[in-house]
Write a structure and sequence with these properties.
- There is one protein chain.
- By secondary structure, the protein is α/β, with parallel strands linked by helices.
- 27% of the residues lie in helices and 28% in strands.
- The strands form three sheets. It has a nine-stranded mixed β-sheet with strand order 11-10-9-12-8-1-6-7-13, with helices on both faces. The chain has a two-stranded antiparallel sheet with strand order 2-5. It has a two-stranded antiparallel sheet with strand order 3-4.
- Strand 9 and strand 10 form a beta hairpin.
- It is globular.
- The chain starts with a strand and ends in a 5-residue tail after the last helix.
- 35% of the residues are buried.
Amino acid sequence: MKILVCISHVPDTTSKINFTDGDTKFDTNGVQFVINPNDEFGLTRAMWFKEKQGASVTVVNVGGAETEPTLRKALAIGADAAIRVNTEAADGFFVAKQLAKVVNDGSYDLVIAGRESIDYNGGMVPGMLAGLTNANFVANCIGLEVDGTNAKAVREIDGGKETVSTALPLVIGGQKGLVEESDLRIPNMRGIMMARKKPLTVLEPADASAETKVTSYEKPAPKGAVKLVNADNIDELVSLLHNEAKVI
């Protein structure tokens, strides 16, 4: 089984976010980038298929040379090879078109993508990718088993979860629950050294254009001042909740 894991290069959640050029561009100065958490769950599940079923695992990213340390980390975790499509990730459709070419050229059986990336939270790439490659698709995937060319997936739905049977080729939008957080892997020194020798192929982008563009960014409004109420003064608390906060 050939597995392709889509890796997004995203800011660490503890990073301080700022914008430049009149709030039209994201300021990357001083920002640490990591593997998108949803993608990391998917990569860990792919490693399980590699170790238990002998699958080959390739990771792919759409981005410039600055994303290669993130791909190298995925290689250090255990992926066999990496692909970088040498272009800026302009929007969801553009990224899906680039990934579709990689999938079609590589004849992958299973494509594991994160449900969404934590930078733009678009949540559109996995579904678009499935449509562009004529593959089956399971969104919000929190469980996956593969037996030959058949797959059983569990996905999160409102108020519960749903188990579905499908066939390869398959694209999933994975998330927390696909593996336990305790199963996530930290690269060790041996893995880091081996990653340096694993192939990282740089591909030129497919002919495609972005369908959307960013016009501006805006930070959330700062939180208002906190008003403290004496625990004995219930009437004042109720009045504030009713007249100011308007939650009751």
